[in-house]
Automatic annotation (TrEMBL):
GO biological process terms on file: response to amino acid
Protein name per Swiss-Prot or TrEMBL: Transcriptional regulator, AsnC family
Domain of life: Bacteria
PROSITE patterns to which the protein is assigned, alphabetical: HTH_ASNC_1
Length: 336
């Protein structure tokens, strides 16, 4: 039982419930949290309307599309990082775009479909953007945490179990699909859910011109195969997380897997990958403030036995997260 709470705490609780299951109905969330449905629906919808919570879906490109993900670090002319970042954010294959501290620095995750696309991206398309000074790329070798499964604030076990009981997920003993080819109807459904991950099945059916049972069957298949995941982005400040940082680590080859898996389970780490280049692991973390970042680096990371912290960059503006274009948002308590 969650019970009554002050306005800020209630908003955080509802946001956490949406991170557990972004497609749960307001009634299901209210029952799981033991709160009035009217209150949950009003406050939850307002969080979405104000852009503090955004529900979409995440397409696993290791199963669908054979993407070749790359982390791209871009140095721009002074004062042009945001403008260049906005251009990159509009790419269909962009997964994450961040402006980080420095004199015109951007870090992006881009998912080119083919090796030829990757070469064209790095050798032609990005360098040809006005005000791009230099480009450095690293190929992603393995995901330890990919972002969609990160929750800012854990709910107690009982409401969490209630929220996930109706979710379609791959069986624990299922063999992951090597590759899925999406039908045009699937592509249309994925596009609709990227824009609104809470869209009801009947609404999706009307939008793509299919029957409701057909849409439900196609979605169940994609979720069960692990190709499609619900993704809920929450403005970090809603949970009091005032600082986002990207950290590159140098790790001995025999320690990469252990370090990556450990960091992938850390509550502050939203994203963690192994990659090529001079750094072997990159993480995206969300923390309370600079003091918390200092403790995370000097205690949590240092305790893993990494060779060195190659670079740390505080995120100034997140411009894209998954299929969502985002902008800095000031958080104010929602009036009850």
């Amino acid at each position: 039982m969650i019970g009554s709470a002050d306005a800020g705490s209630l908003d955080m609780t509802i946001a956490s419930a949406l991170q557990v299951n972004g497609r749960a109905t307001w009634g299901a969330i209210a029952r799981a949290l033991d709160l009035p449905e009217r209150t949950v629906a009003r406050r939850g919808q307002r969080l979405i309307d104000e852009g503090l919570v955004r529900v979409s879906t995440y397409l696993d490109t290791t199963i669908v599309g054979h993407a070749h993900p790359v982390v791209v670090e871009i140095h721009t002319a002074p004062g042009r990082a945001v403008q260049v970042g906005q251009i990159l954010s509009e790419r269909a294959d962009a997964s994450s775009v961040s402006v980080i501290e420095g004199s015109g620095d951007l870090t992006c995750m881009i998912l080119p479909r083919t090796l030829e696309d990757r070469a064209r991206l790095l050798l032609d398309e990005i360098p040809s953007i006005d005000d791009v000074v230099s480009v450095q790329a690293s190929t992603v070798l393995r995901y330890f945490r990919s972002g969609y499964d990160w929750v800012a604030r854990e709910l107690p076990p009982e409401p969490t179990a209630a929220l996930v009981q109706d979710m379609i997920r791959p069986a624990e003993d299922a063999v992951p699909a090597e590759h899925l080819e999406l039908e045009p109807e699937d592509e249309a459904l994925v596009a609709e859910l990227a824009a609104d991950g809470r869209a009801a099945v009947a609404q999706l059916a009307r939008s793509v011109g299919l029957s409701t049972p057909t849409v439900r069957r196609r979605l169940d298949s994609l979720f069960a195969a692990g190709a499609l995941h619900v993704r809920t982005e929450v403005a970090p400040a809603l949970h009091g997380l005032g600082l986002e940082a990207l950290i590159w680590l140098r790790v001995r080859p025999d320690r990469i897997d252990d370090v990556g898996r450990t960091l992938g389970r850390h509550p502050a780490v939203r994203f963690c990958v192994a990659l090529t280049g001079r750094s072997q692991i990159m993480i995206d973390c969300l923390l309370l403030d600079e003091a918390a970042l200092y403790a995370f680096v000097t205690e949590d990371i240092a305790g893993l036995g990494v060779e060195s912290v190659d670079r740390t960059g505080v995120v100034l503006f997140p411009l894209r997260r998954g299929p969502l274009l985002v902008a800095p948002t000031a958080v104010e308590p929602v009036a009850d």
